[in-house]
Amino acid sequence: SKYIFCIGLYSKNYEKNFLITDKPVARAVQCKDEREVLSKFRDEMISFDPDIITGWNIIDFDLNYLKGKFEEHNIPFDFGRTNEKIRIKLEGNFFRNSTASVPGRQVMDGLNLIKDPFIQEAPSIKSKEFESYSLEDVSQAMLGEGKIISGKSRHEEIEKIFKTDKEKLVKYNIQDCKLAYDILTKTSILDLAIERSSLTGLPLNKLTGSIIAFDSLYIREAHKRAIVSPTTRYIEKEERIKGGFVMEPNPGIYHNVLVMDFKSLYPSIMKSFNIDPLSLLDKKEKNSIESPNKAYFKNQEGVLPHILEKLHLAREKAKREKRELASYAIKIIMNSMFGVLASPNCRYFSLEMANAITHFGQKIIQLTAKKIEEKGYKVIYSDTDSVFIEANLTKDKTEKLGKDLQEYINKFYADLVEKEYNRKSFLELEFKKNYISLMLPKVRNAQKETGSKKRYAGLIELDGKESIEIVGLEAIRGDWTQAAKDFQIELLNKVFHRQDPITFIKEYIKKINEGKIDSKLVYRKSIRKNLDEYTKTTPPHVKAARQLDKLDSNIIEYYITVEGPEPIQKLRHKLDYEHYIEKQIMPIADTVLHFFNTSVEEILKNTKQKKLF
User: pTM here?
Assistant: First the structure.
């Protein structure tokens, strides 16, 4: 719209809607024109006096649009707590968030918060899946409700109801405000943000920056010790930082597998070996700590280990008091410390120091696997901070073994760190879970029996209920169809329960060919740049997008037809079922069938083969 119809405000036990209308409308403040809507909105913001202003894409769209309108009508854009004008800094980059400075108030964009990878791991959000970051998709996933008017043509519908049903427009507008408000409050994102703010000393709108949080904590602690911190600088990274150790898995289907995890491995390494910017030495000195990559550190308490220990104690206290959000907020901050030291944008960046942490991590995970194998148990996989052990025992005995190994390894490191480094070990291995069954897949199309790293699926029992946990496989990836995801979960379920999957595979392929699950064959993919910028290659979703009259979303939904990709809005040809079977179903099925020395091609060809087991 070229002009404003209405502006809605919502809070606890409060709502206001400033609407252009020539006669009274329920739940709305009557305004004669756009200028009156803007003026009354500004007066109400100053009168209501909120601490936090939120919305969905509120800075890039709402506030930026309002700023233009306020200037057009020559009304001061200053509804903060001073007469200072509101400043907006827009970022064109998808990975950087725009900011708005409203004096005395915090602007928290729900969209930016939900995109924060740390927020997505929060207990209240972790299990949720979003089709996209639109308000409709996120509110449906988080709250189980959505907009009053949704879909691609909602803009035309809004224009229509402004002329014909202003009460419905008011309801629509207030519901939009309420959804953004509820996402922040009902999911505890706001409480989490406040916890992080109180821990780091940062304002609420700066929380997504790990480097600034690190600076806030480190500079204060260094200052207490009368140490001046260096100025910010950027150092070119000459080479990549060494990652964590990931063992090549032994592909197969296993039963009763123990998973042991080091709790906060990198923070505990920093504490155990005094890895700290102010403890880093130019060369080896008497009594210094030598890391596996030959970096040297003073053997006395540094600033960073002290901060980490304070955070650790605060987290343990939060856990005892059952303050889950506080515990998670502290975990976020602790786990971000390594990433900060590994960033050339950080004033304390040192490749040598960052590599000391990851090299210690590699050494520890490999040594842990060796000590477990010395006990006579087979380590089938390890990944950065965890080891997977084939127990071959009953469930009760497997759980007892987990506790015994936990005690044995922690005692081993307590002795080792004291003997070799004259320090206290903070390394803590924890028996995490027991997979009833676990599949470690083979690398697809590999000639040798090579295991696929960071990809597995396991059957687990929690509180008497069984579920399948998936890491890195198709069922959790956004670029696979719903049909493929459903197929993979059901296939794993059958194999883990030793039920024969051949009939299921054949019937699922038959359903696809008969067009019975077309609605589950939709691909969804985001467009990250303008369509004319795709010049070197043209991915399928871009081909589909170019067939649309206009783009209403950056998420393109399309089918593969016998004539190529087509958007769901303009489907003209028959679906290419052969494509879906070959590219989506067969690779998933063959990952499992490989362990039974057969394939989809074989079982479809061989009508006599009825069973695997």
Answer: 0.73
